[in-house]
């Protein structure tokens, strides 16, 4: 199976990356990012609101050196938090993220949530378009956008988002949103894909894992990528970091997919984008 997705602009992104939410600045995170890169990860996801961009940057530098690779082989994502929304503040926030990361560009910059002020996310998107058109960021996208947010954004956008990072789990399969995005060639990316561990003890997931001789987490990663969804499971545990990327030697059956699809109950673990304003 191909290990990268291709965006509508022709750029590519690894299907599996490392998440870093709830990882504070510090040596544990530096070592996790470094270990991920040495283990073969090429994609790392962070955000201004995680307050960890400095350690992610340090992990990237150490990982690049230890793995003997070039920065250009990595795909780094960070995100614009709601407090920084607005045209000028978005441009400033991007530079501040780069400074903390110690990078001169990121591969993907996302509007983190739509928030509740339509004009503000449209203004912020214009700033991301400027960064993109000026060659300061490789790709721009959104996170937590529902269909109604896309309908508004796409009326005025001159650059279409390449990706939408949303909650996507067997309990919340986002079928309508994914079909809408597929129609517009916008890639889906899942956050909290392991439901912070909750989904790993689901009986259906555990049975499929046993049948394939794989772990429940590997079943979830595989279910994501076989659904064309980019996935960024978070772990600071070296063996789990390796395990979550070791998914290219088996395939789920049609029956596995059917059983996993039956788990949908449109249940979120995170906030609802229709209501969330960052607090
Ligand atoms: N755009 C958005 O609004 C959001 C984006 N995100 C992004 O998505 C990423 C992933 O989501 P997140 O909320 O962190 O949660 P995940 O669903 O990825 O779950 C992470 C938890 O699962 C554990 N874990 C990881 N791998 C395994 C494994 N193989 N076996 C057993 N347990 C495992 C981790 O433990 P341990 O670390 O101890 O190994 C951690 O406790 C975030 O880190 C962030 O980058 C998340 C939420 C919202
Ligand atoms: O993790 C993220 O990327 C989020 O946006 C959310 O989890 C948010 O920061 C939050 O804490 C919601 O309660």
Automatic annotation (TrEMBL):
Establish whether keyword Oxidoreductase is in the entry: yes
Keyword Nucleotidyltransferase assigned: no
Q: Where is the NADP-dependent oxidoreductase domain?
A: 16-265
Q: Which Pfam families does the annotation name?
A: Aldo_ket_red
Which Gene Ontology molecular function entries are recorded, alphabetically?
Answer: oxidoreductase activity, acting on the CH-OH group of donors, NAD or NADP as acceptor
Q: Which PROSITE patterns match?
A: ALDOKETO_REDUCTASE_1, ALDOKETO_REDUCTASE_2, ALDOKETO_REDUCTASE_3
**InterPro entries in UniProt:** AKR (IPR020471), Aldo/ket_reductase_CS (IPR018170), NAD(P)_OxRdtase_dom_sf (IPR036812), NADP_OxRdtase_dom (IPR023210)
Q: Which residues form the active site?
A: 50 (proton donor)
Which residues are annotated as site, described as Lowers pKa of active site Tyr?
79
The UniProt record gives the binding positions of substrate as 112
Alphabetically list the UniProt keywords.
NADP, Oxidoreductase
The record's similarity note reads: Belongs to the aldo/keto reductase family.
Protein's recorded name = Aldo/keto reductase
Q: What broad taxonomic lineage does this protein's source fall under? A: Bacteria, Bacillati, Bacillota, Bacilli, Bacillales
């Amino acid at each position: 199976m191909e290990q990268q997705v291709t965006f509508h602009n022709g750029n590519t992104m690894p299907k599996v990356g490392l998440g870093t939410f709830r990882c504070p600045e510090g040596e544990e995170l530096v070592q996790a990012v470094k270990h991920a890169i040495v283990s073969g990860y090429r994609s790392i996801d962070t955000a201004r609101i995680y307050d960890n961009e400095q350690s992610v940057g340090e992990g990237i530098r150490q990982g690049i050196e230890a793995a003997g690779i070039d920065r250009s082989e990595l795909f780094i994502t960070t995100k614009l938090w709601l407090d920084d929304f607005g045209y000028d503040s978005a441009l400033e926030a991007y530079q501040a993220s780069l400074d903390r990361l110690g990078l001169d560009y990121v591969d993907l910059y996302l509007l983190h949530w739509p928030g509740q002020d339509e004009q503000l996310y449209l203004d912020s998107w214009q700033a991301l378009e400027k960064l993109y058109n000026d060659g300061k960021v490789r790709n721009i996208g959104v996170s937590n956008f529902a269909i109604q947010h896309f309908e508004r954004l796409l009326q005025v956008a001159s650059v279409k988002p390449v990706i939408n990072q949303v909650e996507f789990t067997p309990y919340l399969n986002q079928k309508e949103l994914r079909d809408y995005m597929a129609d517009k060639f916008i890639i889906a990316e899942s956050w909290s894909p392991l439901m912070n561990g909750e989904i790993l003890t689901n009986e259906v997931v555990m049975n499929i894992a046993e049948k394939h001789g794989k772990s429940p987490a590997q079943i979830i990663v595989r279910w994501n990528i076989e659904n064309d969804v980019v996935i960024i499971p978070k772990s600071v545990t070296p063996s789990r970091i390796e395990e979550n990327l070791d998914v290219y030697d088996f395939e789920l059956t049609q029956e596995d997919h059917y059983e996993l699809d039956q788990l949908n109950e449109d249940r979120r673990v995170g906030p609802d984008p229709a209501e969330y304003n960052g607090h």
